[in-house]
Amino acid sequence: MHTTSGASLGGYFGRYLRVDVGSGASEVRAISEEWLVHFIGGVGLGTAILMLESPPRVEPLAPEAAIVFAFSPLVGTPFTTSAKFCVVAKSPLTQRINDALSSSDFAIRGKRAGFDAIVLVGKASVPSIVLIDEAGAQVVPAPQVWDTGDAVATVDAALCAAHSGFAFAVIGTAGERLVRYAGVANQGRHAGRGGLGAVLGSKLIKAVGVRGKRPVLLHDPSEVARLAHALAASSLGPATAKYRELGTVANLATFNRLAALPTRNFSESTFEHAESLTGETLQLTRAQGRGSCRSCTIGCEHYFATSPSAATAPVKLEYESLFALGPLCGIADPDVVIAAASRCDALGLDTVSAGGTIAFAMECNARGLFRGTPFEADAATLHFGDGAALLAALEGIAHRSGPLYALLAEGTRIAAERLGPPAPSFAAHVKGLELPGYEPRSLQTMALGFAVGSRGADHNKSGAYELDFSARVDRFAPALEAAELAVGTEDRAALLDSLILCKFLRGAMPDLFGEAAHMLTATTGLRFSAASLRESAARIVLLKRLFNEREGWTRAEDTLPERFFAEALTSGVANGAILDRSRFEQQITRYYETRGLDQDGTAPPELIARFGLRKLIAHAD
Amino acid sequence: MLSAMVKVELFGVARVRAGASEIEVEAATLGEAFVQLAARFPALVPSVLEGGRLAATFAVALNGQTFTADAELQLADGDTLVVISANAGG
Predict the structure, then answer these.
(1) Cα dist. A411→A104, A133, A397 in Å?
(2) Of A383, A343, A346, A397, which Cα lies nearest the Cα of A181?
(3) Interface size, chain A vs chain B, as Cβ–Cβ contacts under 8 Å
(4) Of A242, A248, A470, the CB nearest to B13
């Protein structure tokens, strides 16, 4: 592919592969230079492709639903943290757009098969795997790896042994059973949130394998090398020290001190047993070394033993898993939390949604809401703090074994709707996606970020918590202007997710848009600038909103559960903190205004035109 | 300005560097407290503290509630300064 000036295009192949896993037919489709400049790669490109390939109002688990694996122009280059890919689909959990990132050889081999993205549609006739390489795609029957009960890592290893040179993205038991928050695993990492594993499971696809050695051209190799060297050096500086030295588990002690640690289904914001689970405690008692993603210089992965004396395989633990399977469920025992995280990995379950749904069920049980229902027997042991019950629930949910676990496999929103009031008032989700580990009443700019997020409650697509942890806002009563700052954090996230580079680099790139423009220009030969990337980032955020609008989103979804407006916190420094609904609605309105949206949150035609999205939207409708 | 006895609580990398989780210092302002902290824990300089200020990758919450960057902020007896990583998320 060449740029409009005639030079060879670096970083991109200018095409994606569309595979119908039902018929086995595949087709190469061109991606225009305009699209590459507008959407960059990763989340941006994946969303644009999904908009075209997924029929409007499609049921996410229907054969017609599409799932996109999108790479970026920086995959296969020397830039640190660039070995990432994005999986995009309509979520079976939220019925809205879901984009999840992951890092591994899958990104590099998939890109080097010669594609900027891979799209799967249809449904296989029997459980199968999809193999994609430079020659194209094959849908291969693979009943021997389906419904075995094996951990995803075991299946991954078996597939790698059987198919030389391929890297795999694999679903677990949870994906096979269409658990609405089943993830997609790859080499020990996960595109975890939003149920993408169930989308693959609905297509009877156990795994997608990619293999390729096509070189990724670099427009200006010496400039790329210089920039990559500089970025690598920055990545080892003070901005990433926390991740290198402690990992994200360090958040637990901090959040507890600031009364921002969601505890017992968001009923409290400090956990009296937090000390047993802090990163510092885990480092002292059971640290088992560090690791890193492919092509990453930071090395944020910290491994921990399931117990100080057990000789079991070490488990990678992040804050989100620690909070969701620990304080959120009232669990203080690190043996249980680490074992639970390990089981989620093995079963292919999103830890945040799993923990959030189980915590919700624990509260339902405490309130007697299961009494006299078909769920009563299974729910009998589901108490906050009961580690055995937590572990049993994870197995039950992944297998949908019994009426209660089949209900919980649907996520908190559906479970709450089925149980009826008062359950929806304390089902901690936004748009169906369970909240991550940030207490909204203590971090009220983050609360806004959760509410307006196109994926649902999400700390990855909105970095608004950074504002709450700074002197720029009052975290308990942010001014309306905080909404404008929150928009900035979304745009930076959209850019990083489209480049695709790790968000842990954000502090190491003080001029994110300018630096990214240099990197992209040097890699591709296309003319990027800080201004054009700011516009692209805003365009990508808008496109995700437009996808949701097409699928039926309304302003009513941009909110938080009633609990956060009705119940004040009672612990620690957040005593008395509550969301004020009137102020919250004003912030949402300010957010819409800042984005150029109408009062009801929809995009006016002139905004769609301004970002050059009219043709895509018309085609996608 | 009268000095105050304040507690400084250290989290994350700051705690690792200092080798301690908390300390009491006597200071009239936030800036003075940081100068005292640096004197007591030289290992915090320059990665956490420099010139009486926190490095950009750290933040401080007065009494664990309100984040501030005002070096001239006057402190009162019994105040607590909670020092955390500015990139507190993940």
Answers:
(1) 28, 36, 10
(2) A397
(3) 92
(4) A242
A238 lies within 8 A of chain B by CB: yes
The three-class DSSP label of residue B12 is coil
Q: What does the CA dihedral B33, B35, B36, B38 come to, rounded to 10 degrees?
A: 120
A289 at B interface, C-beta within 8 A: no
Looking at beta carbons, which residues of chain B come within 8 Å of A438? 89
Q: Is B64 in Cβ contact with A258 (below 8 Å)?
A: yes
Q: How far apart are CA A206 and CA A113, in angstroms?
A: 20
Give me the pLDDT at residue A3, please: 59
pLDDT score at A107 = 97
Total of domains in chain B: 1
State the smallest CA–CA distance between residue B58 and chain A in angstroms: 9
A105-117 pLDDT, tens digit each: 999 999 999 999 9
- What is the rounded average pLDDT of the residues A361-371? 98
> What is the C-alpha to C-alpha distance for residues A243 and A297, in angstroms, rounded to an integer?
11
pLDDT of residue A4: 57
| Rg of chain B over all Cα atoms, to the nearest angstrom | 12
Question: Is B90 domain-assigned?
Answer: no
CB pair distance less than 8 Å for B90 and A280: no
pLDDT for A308 equals: 75
Going by C-alpha positions, the residue among A130, A47, A150, A29 that lies closest to residue A89 is A47
Global pTM reads 0.97
Q: Which H or E run includes A39? A: helix A33-39
Class (C level, CATH) for A434-620: mainly alpha
Residue B57 located in a structural domain:
yes
ipTM, 2 dp: 0.97
Averaged pLDDT for residues B35-55: 93
DSSP B56-86: TTEEEEETTTEEE--TTPBP-TT-EEEEEES
- In tens, the pLDDT along A472-511 reads 999 999 999 999 999 999 999 999 999 999 999 988 999 9
Structural domain boundaries enclosing B69: 4-85
Q: Of A561, A566, A510, A500, nearest to A110 (Cα)?
A: A500
Q: Quick one: closest CA in A to B17, which residue?
A: A245
DSSP class of A425: G
The domain A229-420 having CATH identifier 1.10.569.10: the answer here is: yes
Please tell me the predicted confidence (pLDDT) of residue A5: 58
Q: Provide the mean pLDDT of chain A.
A: 96
> Which two tokens mark A142?
């693979």
